[in-house]
Fold each of these.
Amino acid sequence: MQSPDKIISRSGIKEGMKALEVGCGSGAFTTFVARAVGDKGEIFALDIQPKMLKQIETKLKRPENKDIKNIHLINGDALNMPFEDNTFDLIYSITVFQELPDKNKALKEMKRVLKPDGILSITEFLPDPDYPLKSTTVKMGTSEGFILNDVEGSFWNYTARFIKPHN
């Protein structure tokens, strides 16, 4: 597992942001990001599998998470997201992007719902069986018109951060 603090820092997640987690799964990082954006921020946790969202619901009922009130669970598809254009300050995905059936369509959707100058953050790490090289992730993001902002990490784990241009 990767340190949530390291992923939050590398991703550019800041207090007050309205962020979308694409492929939240059981919420391994969701509660950490919810605390990082604080009471003025919001996290929209998107997953195509309702059972994953149920696991986050259960996690949020635990005493240690009772203070978290800024997570919205969304059952939906990354290829056809139920959000308006230019909604989010930041979109992040942790070891999920390579599992999406149509990565180019997913990137187009992410670009659509991300605000201009918004951040797209893709984190990958081994031993994920779908692990892509940094160069693969960078090429995919830039081919859809995102501007590479930075890649942090090592061969074993990294976060590629992109910016949505104004056009």
Amino acid sequence: MLNPVFSIKHMRHLIPLFQNLTAELRDILLEKAESDALEVNMADWFGRLALELIAQGGLGHTFDTLKDEGKGGEFSRAVKEFS
């Protein structure tokens, strides 16, 4: 049932979205590196990126998980409070 979603034809349409979101994360991490941040939780940032990729690529909606100064969006906070 999910096979058409993961077809090469469909995935090609997602490449620009993936590139834009990973570039956005790159810029955020560069800012953090230039601000002399001693520590960056990469697992947290990659989790947010994955959630945003699924949200935009699969649902056509953004949860703004890469915004809000590293705190994630409202949905991201709700999920963390729930678990």
Amino acid sequence: METRVSLWLPLLLCSIMCLGTNVVQGNPNYKDALAKSILFFQGQRSGRLPTNQLLSWRSNSGLSDGAVARVDLTGGYYDAGDNVKFNFPMAYTTTMLSWSTLEYGKRMGAQLPNARAAIRWATDYLLKCAKATPGKLYVGVGDPNVDHSCWERPEDMDTTRSVYSVSPSNPGSDVAGETAAALAAASLVFRVADPKYSRLLLNTAKQVMQFAMQYRGAYSDSLGSAVCPFYCSYSGYKDELLWGAAWLYRATNDVYYANFLKSLGANDATDIFSWDNKFAGARVLLSRRALLNKDSSYEQFRQQAEDFMCRILPNSPSSTTQYTPGGLMFKLSESNLQYVTSITFLLTTYSKYMSSAKHTFSCGNMVVTPSTLKYLAKKQVDYILGVNPLKMSYMVGYGTTFPRRIHHRGSSLPSLLSHPQAIGCQGGFQPFYYTSSPNPNILTGAIVGGPDQNDGFSDDRTAYSHSEPATYINAAIVGPLTYFAASYSA
């Protein structure tokens, strides 16, 4: 009976999730989507751009970042459609790009150097933030409240580039733990390709993690309106301590981190994974030791990872996840695809671990195989790439029908090449923001916030919760796209 349930599960899933979708089935061109998903990061770059910059409508920006604190904080990424550098989501983006490269790098082919370049653009900046001033970790550049009242190109920024930091007296265990995770994960990416850089990343990760562990507190409490409501640490900082220690343990095998992990007592059940809440990601990462290394002391994390999967699967008796009529996972109305891509990464990665370990588990009386998770992950990726009721690709520049009016300053305003005159803080709203015309610049590979719970999408620049792209949406889908690019022909 168990075998029959597991064999028929994909058909059962489809009967539930494909009902009334009227979409064309088939395998999208995952290889093309993968290349574009990584190219997107070039459009988010801050700092002095390299000569091999392919998205040529972008130019140098933020060249004085850090000057008000007399430090060099140039580089890094703008998080979404604005011109602020928020390190909390940027570090998560870096961790997810690194994890994608670690799990799937051997399948990336020609995209592996591009993935490393995208990671390094972030880690070069994060290293500056960690090393510029002893006893401080810089965690952001640009006043978000001022920036969000402007609509101007990053190349024209004339707003105050305020600098924000955490310290022993103003702690930020969440942003520090995530920064440590990013540096540790990236150190593994560069361990063979650039050993010297890898050592620098790992040594800095250890220092930042020590700070996160020693000086406990949420960065939202320390920085207030500089990060809230934009990137408040809603889930607290225990998840980042777990996440950071998990990555340090993976990078070092130091029992110090293993002991810390087990002392945290992080038993919070969850059905989400995002830049804010890392519990599920940490548990999948740690379950690797239970499944692949047969280490029974990590069984707790395996069980928690599988509890998470049971909360995601649509016909699991313990599912707490809503799906749209077209089969898209729907978590929250604000930028829903960020949750879809992050959870999809965990689905493919846990499926991969299960396959290697020849492992299955149960959600009640439902047997879950590696194929169960892989099927659901493919459904989500395909939906994003256009296998949905609107036949709309939610990746800009992929396919023929994709969002043309994304909520993104650089994309929506003419480039310096076509409009060399400066566009001031308020100068971009008319005629560029409040217009139904398509954006003049294509932010290739950008995945937007996505459709509503009824599969509807208006392609409206002012509807930012649906039309705004973000680095953390893209970073999480790189792994699944690589996985499916290697599994299916275009």
Amino acid sequence: MSKGNPSSKVAGFTAPGMSDKAAQQVIELLDQRMVALIDLQLTLKHIHWNVVGPNFIGVHEMLDPQVETIREMTDTVAERIATLGGVPVGTPKALVERRSWQDYEVGKGLVSEHLTALDKVYNGVNADHRQAIEKLAELDAVSEDILTGQLADLEQFQWFVRAHIESSSGQLKG
């Protein structure tokens, strides 16, 4: 296992019909998606615990199903990494070391503050999922399909968030 990327391929095998080089590239792409999904589920729980103000309960209750679905997504991605001969590493220190974005900065805050910030989080996660899908199209149809299905749910979750911060003219706050 390499220090720079704890999920580097370590098994002496990968999926039948896939080259070791392609497997390594797929593992690296999936590792970044796994890190992003773990970060997203923790951010959603943080918001769940710290959102206040009008519409608090609606937002509070909207977030838990998102957390559960994203936990399942994370598990699927981690298991795909293992299937390809990689090692999915989800320990806190390893996650922080591999994260390329800033930490979520809103503490206790109003619904509109959190959802405006969460919309930006979804912008990043969803755009990065889409970029990974494009790269996976050349490498691994199975992993591409996994992320494509996930992106449909992630985009719907972002739509739920945006419905709370959208004006009647279709403009987003923030």
